[in-house]
């Protein structure tokens, strides 16, 4: 393994951390509706727990309403119960086979709680990025110890890993600020 391989691996892991962080941000709801909010809600379907998107068609009716159209007739009540019991604070209403899930407006207090959740999630992503940096630096030190690269190469490799870490953390900070602004917008 060379310093370039270590840097490439670190870059890939950091990119995966950012992608994972973006996915977590999508789960944090704002005042607007989007079908991805229901991805974490699971419903019992013939003995196994499945995400709602695998047993129903989830789409938007308007900016504040999600529609859920079950593929089987008997699933409507189970899906409605699963959404109601989830920690999302949503209250679906049935209209025949179609479920309408209105997104309630967020209170100021709830918005502040959500910004704390966003910051905490961002901090966890930064911790993961720093762990990747630490692992890469340890691998570089091991290469020097095994006399596979010079100390100058190790220093250059560590500097490059640090620059990569700084860029990734700056990207995470930008995402946190954007999501906080989105959550606080009325």
From TrEMBL:
Molecular functions (GO terms): ribosomal large subunit binding
Family listed: Belongs to the RRF family.
Keyword 4Fe-4S: no
Organism superkingdom: Bacteria
Name by which UniProt lists this protein: Ribosome-recycling factor
Pfam entry (one): RRF
SUPFAM superfamilies from the UniProt entry: Ribosome recycling factor, RRF (SSF55194)
Origin species: Rubrivivax gelatinosus (strain NBRC 100245 / IL144)
Keywords annotated in UniProt: Cytoplasm, Protein biosynthesis
GO process annotations (BP): cytoplasmic translational termination
Gene Ontology CC: cytosol
Protein's cellular compartments: Cytoplasm
Broad class of the protein's primary localization: cytoplasm
Residues annotated as domain Ribosome recycling factor: 21-184
Known role: Responsible for the release of ribosomes from messenger RNA at the termination of protein biosynthesis. May increase the efficiency of translation by recycling ribosomes from one round of translation to another.
Residue spans crossing the bilayer: none
């Amino acid at each position: 393994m060379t310093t370039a391989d270590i840097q490439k691996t670190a870059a890939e892991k950091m990119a995966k951390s950012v992608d994972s962080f973006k996915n977590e941000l999508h789960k944090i709801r704002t005042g607007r509706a989007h079908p991805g909010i229901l991805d974490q809600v699971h419903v019992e379907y013939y003995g196994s727990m499945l995400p709602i998107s695998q047993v129903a068609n989830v789409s938007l009716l308007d900016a504040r309403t999600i529609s859920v159209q079950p593929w089987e007739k008997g699933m409507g009540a189970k899906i409605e119960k699963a959404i109601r019991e989830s920690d999302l604070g949503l209250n679906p209403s049935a209209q025949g086979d179609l479920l309408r899930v209105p997104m309630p407006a967020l209170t100021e207090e709830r918005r502040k709680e959500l910004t704390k959740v966003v910051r905490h999630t961002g901090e966890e992503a930064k911790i993961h990025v720093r762990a990747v940096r630490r692992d890469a630096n340890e691998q570089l030190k091991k290469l020097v110890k095994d006399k596979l690269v010079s100390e100058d190469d190790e220093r250059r490799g560590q500097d490059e890993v640090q620059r990569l870490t700084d860029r990734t953390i700056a990207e995470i900070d930008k995402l946190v600020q954007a999501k906080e602004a989105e959550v606080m917008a009325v």
